[in-house]
Amino acid sequence: LKAELLQKTGSFKPRGVLNRLQLLTPEERERGVITFSAGNHAQAVAWAASAAGIRATVVMPAQAPEGKVAAAQGYGAEVILHEHFVDYVLRLRDERGLTLVHPFDDPGIIAGAGTVGLEVLADLPDLATLVVGIGGGGLISGMAVAVRTQRPAVRIIGVEPLGANAMFRSLAVGHPVRLDTLNTIADGLAPPYAGEHTYAIVRELVDEVLVIPDEEILEGMRFLFERCKLVAEPAGAAATGALLAGRVRAADGPLVAVVSGGNIDVARMKSLL
Amino acid sequence: LKAELLQKTGSFKPRGVLNRLQLLTPEERERGVITFSAGNHAQAVAWAASAAGIRATVVMPAQAPEGKVAAAQGYGAEVILHEHFVDYVLRLRDERGLTLVHPFDDPGIIAGAGTVGLEVLADLPDLATLVVGIGGGGLISGMAVAVRTQRPAVRIIGVEPLGANAMFRSLAVGHPVRLDTLNTIADGLAPPYAGEHTYAIVRELVDEVLVIPDEEILEGMRFLFERCKLVAEPAGAAATGALLAGRVRAADGPLVAVVSGGNIDVARMKSLL
Description:
The structure is a homodimer. By secondary structure, chain A is α/β, with parallel strands linked by helices. Helix content of chain A is 48%, strand content 15%. The longest helix of chain A has 15 residues, at 214-228. Chain A is globular. The A-B interface holds A 5-6, 10, 222, 225-226, 228-232, 262, 265-266, 269-270, 273 and B 5-6, 10, 222, 225-226, 228-232, 262, 265-266, 269-270, 273.
C-alpha cells in the first residue's frame, strides 16, 4: 500500500500543485492562482500556495462542509462559496488575471502526481501490478507515465466507482464524456467528467479500468481501518476495495495499491461504517 | 509521532517478543513458550513464535473478545480461555515445561522494546523530549535505557490513565504496587500492577509520570484519526492526548510521542468517539 493519505493535507494532491506552482512565470506568481474544488485539491492549493508565498483563491460549492472551508482558510487561502462554482471560477480568473490550477487536467499537475510512481519504483524496482483509483484521472495518468517510462511491462489498473464512471464510459465511446448524474460515497473520485489530457494518457497507458460498487469501497475502508490502522476516505480505499473483491487480475510479482487520501471526519466514518 | 501501530500485529509488542525468543536455549525453543494476555501481547507472541517456528500457548481471560482469540489462533497459537488466567498460566508452564514470555516484566522483552528508542534517535539525533504511555512499563523502560545511554539529557515522560495508575502510585510509595480496581478505556495500559524490573528502571530513568483522564485519551484518538489518519487504540493515544491537553513540559527541541498500538475494531471506535 502506498500511503498517500499521510501526505501534508491528507492526500497526494500537494504533489501536483507544488509542481504546477513551480511552473508559474514570475508575473503569474505575483498575480496569484485560483482553483475550484470541494475537496482535497482545495486544501492542497491553499497549503502549497501559502508555503510558496503565492496568493490563492479557492472557489468551493455553496454547500461545502464547514470543516473543509475552514481548513482551506486556515492554510491562508481566500475561500469563496458559489452555487455554480466552476463557471464562476473562470469568470473570476479572467477578471482578476489569476492563473487556474486545475484539479487534474493539466500536464504540470499530472507530472507532479507522477512522483508517486517514482517513489513506488524506488521502493519496489520489480513492481508488477499497480492499482490506482480514478477521479479526474490525474494520479493514475502521472503514475502511468512515470512507471511505464521505466518499466514498460508493469500492469496498470484503474478503479472507478460505479456511480461516477466517467473514465470507463469515455474509453467505451472513444472520447472524454461528461456524466449527468453522480452517485457514489467516493466524493474524491466523482468529478463529472474525464479530462482531455488524462483521458488520452489513460487510453494509451492503462491496461484496464475496473468499475466497483460502493459496498466494495466500504470493505476497503474497513480493511484499511482494522488491519492497516489507516483512516482512508472512500476515494482512498477504492483500489484496496477492488483488490479485496478479487477484481484485479494481477501480474506475477509485487503489487501496489495507492491509498490516495484520508480526509474524512469521525462523524462521516461512523455513518459509513 | 512514532507510529508503532503500523508494526506487524498492530503494536510495538513483537519487538520485545522476538528478542525474548532469540534468547531461548535450544531446549526451551524445542519445548515451546506460554504467555498470558488479553490484548496486543497475545497477538505478538502468537505471530512471532509462529515466525520463529516455536510452539506457543496463549492463555486469555474467559471473556476475551472473539476477534482477539481468532487473531491469536490465526497466527498459529494454541489459545486457552480461563477464568483465572494468570494463575493458570503458571501451572501450565510447570506442567508442560514451557517458558513464560512475560508481557512486560522481563529484561529480554524490555530490551526488545528499546529498539523503538534506537530508531527514534536514528531519525532525530537531537531528540529533546520523549512521551510514552505506561501500562506494565516495558516500552518506556526499554526506550529510556536505549535513549539515556546515548543522550543523557533527553527529557522522558510517561503517561498513565487515571484509572490504571500503578506506576504513578508505585513511585509515590517507593515500591511496585498492585491495584485493586481498574477503570479506564485504555485496556492496553491497564495491567493491575507495575513490574519489578520496569518499576526500577522508570524510577531511575524517567523524569516524570503524568496521569490523565480518559477524556484526554479520547481527544488524542480523535486528533490522530482526523489529523494524522491513524487508527490508534486508546492505549496508543495516551501520549498524544497528554500533549494536546498541555500537560507535557517539554524541553527545547524535537519531541516524539509514541503511538504504541492500533488494535481497535470499527464497532469499538464508533462507541468511543
